[in-house]
Design goal:
about 350 residues; alpha/beta; Rossmann fold; seven-stranded mixed β-sheet; 9 strands; globular; S-adenosyl-L-methionine
């Protein structure tokens, strides 16, 4: 188990105090642990080492280096076109979850295999379960509706000795269900987590991707780092001047990872409604909420299912603010009894 760090020089704004990625990337150390990163690292005009964050191969290789260096994950890869998530933000969610569990257990973070989490939509990258298991020793079930994602995640777990026995990967065969089929009758989870699809359609997802690429270029120019090579969408034979194909993005993503009918709000509402069926089998249900304007309807849905406690946790990375909404159906007495199992 990797011990979480508390102190880092030149800390990045907003990241959790235990997040080891608060410091600027130590590229010499990362290149030493992952030589494949070397070709992607260049000096910017200020003499600082960096990578081109608009280059998908550079971002994926940086992820490999971060997972290897900080979490001792020896092998990590994803199929082409699948989501390549930013490791610092993924780690932040897990550290805030640890705080939530600690707050429920009189201030002590529960660690080890007695703590079990369910990651809804683990993706082909399996990052949440990997980091959570390596930092806190928690057991995980990763769920996904995409067979390729489940196969990829299973291969990652099997390929890393440090992950074996700590992560199970399950295929959700019914896209209408979130928890049914993933939480067995005799199972209890200390928490669930989810990074839901944010967009309501592929068109919205593509527009969001375009904005992200433009923002990457603008931020690079503003900070004086190397000029990003932001390519226009490729025009293929048969396209009209107004038809553009999907851009080759640094973070990728399949349909189920990026969008669903109704977008983030509809997905989370469905999750809330279905969570009530498993109210005694989970201590805390949680989800990321990207859009602040969705919070009122989410809170209304939680009140409708009579959640006993509702919490909104803000997370920041630079200027970007995201939120985790957590809810439980257990009263204080039931929560105290639940937490007693961690010490028994």
């Amino acid at each position: 188990m990797v011990k979480p760090s508390n102190n880092s020089p030149q800390q990045k704004k907003g990241l959790h105090p235990r997040n080891p990625h608060r410091a600027r990337y130590d590229f010499p150390a990362l290149m030493k642990s992952t030589p494949a990163l070397v070709p992607f690292v260049k000096k910017n005009p200020f003499g600082d080492l960096s990578v081109d964050f608009s280059n998908p191969d550079a971002v994926k290789t940086l992820n490999k280096a971060l997972l290897h260096h900080f979490y001792h994950v020896e092998f990590w890869d994803i199929p082409k076109g699948y989501l390549c998530p930013p490791i610092p933000g993924r780690a932040d969610y897990l550290h805030y979850l640890a705080d939530l569990l600690a707050d429920t257990a009189d201030g002590e973070i529960p660690q080890g295999k007695k703590v079990k989490g369910l990651d809804i939509g683990m993706g082909a990258n399996c990052v949440y379960p990997m980091v959570g298991h390596r930092v806190y020793g928690w057991q995980f079930v990763g769920a996904d509706i995409d067979p390729v994602s489940v196969k990829s995640a299973t291969l990652l777990v099997d390929a890393n000795v440090s992950l074996k026995g700590g992560i199970q990967c399950r295929l959700q065969k019914d896209a209408d269900n979130i928890f049914t089929g993933m939480i067995n009758a005799d199972e209890r989870f200390d928490f669930t987590m989810c990074n839901p699809p944010f967009h309501a359609s592929m068109e919205d997802a593509t527009k969001g991707s375009e904005r992200k690429v433009r923002n990457l270029a603008a931020n690079a120019k503003k900070k004086g780092s190397e000029k990003f090579k932001v390519q226009p969408f490729e025009k293929k034979a048969g396209n009209t001047p107004h038809q553009k194909t999907k851009p080759d993005l640094n973070f990728g993503g399949q349909n189920a990872e990026l969008w669903c009918p109704g977008g983030e709000a509809a997905f989370i509402k469905r999750m809330i409604e279905q969570s009530a069926t498993f109210k005694t089998q989970c201590l805390w249900f949680t989800t990321m909420v990207s859009k602040k304007e969705n919070l009122p309807s989410i809170n209304q849905a939680l009140k409708a299912v009579k959640a006993k406690d509702i919490r909104t946790i803000e997370m920041a990375q630079g200027q970007k603010i995201t939120r985790v909404v957590a809810w439980t159906f257990l009263n204080k007495e039931a929560r105290d009894e639940w937490c007693g199992a961690w010490k028994g």
